[in-house]
């Protein structure tokens, strides 16, 4: 059973697949989907494995999540190369998918999720990243972490959102929707961080990619993507946005839509 795509727009334009991260769900891309749909594109946003209404069963390792993305493209009948938009975990899934299945992708925009090989290289030079990533260590505590994350209506998730996007207040309705998704999905979204599989190597990615990092990101330092261009054998560009945290597409939706439209139009 493949993960579930959130209803796609239908037109005659380019096919765009959007892949969310944590703590989030496919509704994260609703505004972007409308903007791209208005521009003539077909857009689908998938719920990752482990996120209701997608399949909740594991395992949740990165290679399997990568193959899930390809399975969703097949289920949609999108056999020609598509355009990818990935955020956080979705960006890292995208990097792995583009390296393994480059013929399935025409171009990509990734947000706030540096390539795992780039993170491994740069984290040694930026010890602050270990402190920012302490939530991952906490998630290894199994059932205790699962209970703590869900306690008091996901108060822990509220703290993460505030910490990761310190200069923005994420929309209340969106936070409510995501919490409802998490409530139906737990413990899978947290167990995903125990799935592993991030040793994806440095296989060259031949897919033109725009990477966007918020300078105020409290989850992953923008410096984690320093030198990331070496992992690409084709066009790559990084933009660091002032006034944006970990969720650029939610914090600055208009700017994000324009950046995605312009990048897609180039390819």
Write the layout of secondary structure elements.
Blueprint: E1 5-6, E2 15-19, H1 30-38, E3 42-46, H2 62-76, E4 82-87, H3 89-100, E5 105-111, H4 116-122, H5 128-132, H6 134-139, H7 143-164, H8 172-185, H9 188-191, E6 209-214, E7 236-241, H10 248-251, H11 253-266
Parallel strand pairs: 2-3, 2-4, 4-5, 5-6, 6-7
Antiparallel strand pairs: 1-3
Molecular structure report:
The chain is α/β, with parallel strands linked by helices. 42% of the residues lie in helices and 14% in strands. It is built from eleven helices and seven strands. Strands 1-3-2-4-5-6-7 form a seven-stranded mixed sheet, sandwiched between helices. Helix 7 runs antiparallel to helix 8. The radius of gyration is 17 Å and the shape is globular.
Task: Please describe the structure with a list of short key phrases separated by commas or semicolons.
alpha/beta; 7 strands; 14% strand; seven-stranded mixed sheet; 11 helices; 267 residues; single chain
- Cα separation of the termini: 32 Å
Which runs of at least 5 residues are low in confidence (pLDDT < 50)? none
What strand line-up does the widest sheet have?
Answer: 1-3-2-4-5-6-7
| Sheet/helix structural class | alpha/beta
| Principal-axes shape call | globular
Give a count of the beta strands, DSSP E runs of length 2 or more.
7
Q: Nearest-angstrom radius of gyration?
A: 17 Å
Largest sheet at a glance?
7 strands, mixed
Write the element-wise H/E pattern from the N-terminal end onward. EEHEHEHEHHHHHHEEHH
Mean of residue pLDDT values:
93
Strand content: 5-15%
Task: Work out the helix count.
Answer: 11
Estimate the helix proportion, in percent.
Answer: 40-55%
């Amino acid at each position: 059973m493949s993960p579930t795509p959130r209803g796609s727009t239908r037109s005659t334009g380019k096919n765009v697949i959007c892949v969310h991260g944590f703590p989030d769900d496919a509704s994260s891309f609703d505004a972007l989907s409308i903007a791209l749909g208005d521009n003539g594109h077909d857009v689908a946003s998938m719920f990752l494995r482990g996120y209701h209404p997608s399949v909740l069963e594991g395992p949740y390792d990165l290679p399997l999540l990568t193959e899930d993305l390809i399975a969703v493209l097949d289920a949609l009948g999108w056999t020609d190369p598509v355009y990818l938009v990935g955020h956080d975990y979705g960006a890292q899934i995208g990097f792995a998918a583009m390296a393994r299945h480059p013929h399935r992708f025409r171009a990509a925009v990734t947000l706030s999720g540096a390539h795992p090989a780039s993170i491994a290289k740069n984290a040694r030079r930026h010890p602050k990243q270990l402190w920012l990533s302490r939530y991952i260590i906490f998630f290894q505590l199994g059932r205790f972490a699962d209970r703590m994350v869900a306690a008091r209506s996901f108060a822990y998730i509220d703290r993460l959102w505030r910490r990761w996007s310190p200069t923005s207040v994420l929309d209340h309705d969106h936070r409510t929707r995501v919490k409802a998704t998490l409530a139906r999905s737990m413990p899978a979204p947290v167990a995903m961080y125990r799935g592993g599989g991030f040793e994806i190597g440095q296989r060259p990615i031949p897919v033109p990619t725009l990477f966007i990092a918020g300078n105020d990101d409290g989850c992953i330092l923008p410096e984690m993507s320093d030198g990331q261009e070496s992992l690409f054998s084709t066009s790559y560009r990084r933009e660091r946005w002032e006034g944006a945290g970990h969720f650029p597409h939610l914090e600055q939706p208009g700017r994000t839509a324009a950046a995605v439209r312009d990048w897609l139009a180039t390819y």
